[in-house]
Amino acid sequence: MSDSKTLRLGRMRDDDRPYGVWKFLLVILVFSAVILVPYGWLITSAFRDTSGAWTLSNWSFLVKETQLRRGIHLPPAIKPLMSSFSFAIIMAASVVTITVPAAYALSRTEFQGRRLMAKLLIVLDAFPQVALLTSFIMLLSKMHLVNKLIGVVFLKVAMYLPGSIWLMKGFFDHISWDIEWASIVDGASRFKTFLRIIVPAAKPGISVILVNSFLSGWGEYILINLFISGHSATMSSFIGAMMDGEDGRYLVPPGVLAAACFFYIIPVIITFAVSQKTLLQVRQGGSKQ
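The chain above was modelled as a monomer; its predicted structure follows.
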């Protein structure tokens, strides 16, 4: 009896398989190779010298100066690394701190100009950043924040907020009013309800905003190079200084550049590995699976 049931289940699984699935897998594999092959080259090159022999000397940029041209050196990567972490962490914390209450207010309260503000968020999120560079320079000059990392953080947070608030509002919109009213009926204040009921319910959405804002800050390159002088403000500018912007030549051995790039993506890998369980709980609309 059990054997016949197992046989029927096996047939059902075979019937459920889409026709020609191997064709789709082959196409996916081909397109994945466009991404996987460069990453494979990057990892292997990070541990090989110019002759192809195994070496760890490519990683000396972490603790020693790196020579670019005669008389021009990059400092050890520790300082740019700490600056990158500071930039990304401050940005992520600032974005979440502002986004969560602002999105809750747009989602749960009625006030004059609410609909107009929601529409403006979409417009501001779609506005090209390049068109605002002149305004950014004037703004930072007026605030005396030119050539300071905190000034770039201020700009980056301001540009990231419209999209993150709109996204977070979608999560709050799909949280049931019943649990909020039940808490208020039981005697909890609106703030206490928000802090202890709504925020935990929106944890997957907050995690999305936190991870995305951290990675956006970690990968920022344009604003840092425009508004901060020097070649080692953050890890992105540190790596950019290893290449000649005029003709694209390497100013360091390829293995050193590969090691720096590989080192640069390690925090990204760790971030996704740590947060993937929470991120996978997110469905469209902000509810949990």
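Confidence is low (pLDDT under 50) at residues 284-289.
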